[in-house]
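Today's session is about reading a structure prediction critically. Students often jump straight to the picture, but the first step is always the sequence itself: look for stretches that repeat, for charged clusters, for runs of hydrophobic residues. Only then move on to the predicted structure, which in these notes is written as discrete structure tokens rather than atom positions. Here is the chain we will use throughout the hour.
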Amino acid sequence: MLTARPWQLAGQLPDRHYPVVPSIRDVPGWVWRNPAYIVERFMPERDGDLYCIRGWMFLGSFSYGWRLLGTDHMVKAGNLVRHEFIDDVPDGLIDLKQRAGFDFGKFDYVMHEGKPIVLDLNKTPAYACDPDSPRLTHLSRGIEEFLP
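Below is the predicted structure for this chain, in token form.
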């Protein structure tokens, strides 16, 4: 049975799971041969025993950021321990926003050895929280920059 075999031998990755291996030498050959897969160096942000992921959402020059902390290297709602809002955005992200020509979007990133490592750029972010959120109200003011 395929599911009973380790993913390394099964020839496919586990559903919705991103394995972390100790070394590039431990990545199975079939992964390298499959153009659907991307292999990246694992550069986590840690806070004690917790893993962190950050987000930055912006509209024009208005923005807000956050940091999520979880127990698994894939920080998701199911392993989330806490979240916090952050005010500072690394200069590298501001530069990337300008170079990429983003007026509206969301960047997911981690801080690794003092530098932002971008994981995802999204030009069509969704917002699934309270529509009366002060952060969303603040962000919405950015639309004024695009009105005649």
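Discussion point for the tutorial: The chain is about 20% helix and 30% strand.
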